[in-house]
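User:
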Amino acid sequence: MKNKTKLAFELLEQEMEVIYKEDLRQVLGGIQRDANGNIIFTAVEPFNTYDYSGNPVSMIKGYILADDGTQIVAYRNDPNSPMGYDTDCHGTTFADGQYWINNDQTCSILTGDGYTIIGESTGTNSSVGYSSVGYSSGGYSSGGYSPDGYKVGDVVVYYDSNGNLAHSLTITGFSEDGTPMVYGQGGEEIFNSTTSIENGWANYSSYQVYRK
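Assistant: Predicted structure:
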């Protein structure tokens, strides 16, 4: 009887954990995950390409799901392929650094996951400045918020000179003067790094800050 009671409690705990994780996903939104918190990836077909140096890269093309069910094309790297294709900037920003996500899929993630624009750059990368609705830049940050209204977890999307979405990073903190600091990687980079929001990408013309 004692063993049966123990087993019943263990099963109840497992069920509660599944319910908790599912409720948490519904509250937080974001890319859809299974009961264990893993991103749901559906494989479709093999995909072969080459890296910038001409080395062959083998991947699996498939899709993950935005919060509203929109299919987001994503690529899972083969363990024997170059590590630089394990993920890219968008895969790091939105998919736990586990998948490669191309630029043309990112708008679908922003829409499907319910992101809204809360701020934008006030000029190009040669004209430093940032602002957000109802706030001005400058000053000291505390409590996870910067003086201009940004907070840890906000996503920064960078655009090139043609207005094309080309890069994304995540705000993970603030300097003593309140400058947002962003985290992530780009292209075939293997390691993530942290820098200021203005130095997040060398080739941007403008950026926008999103929150869900």
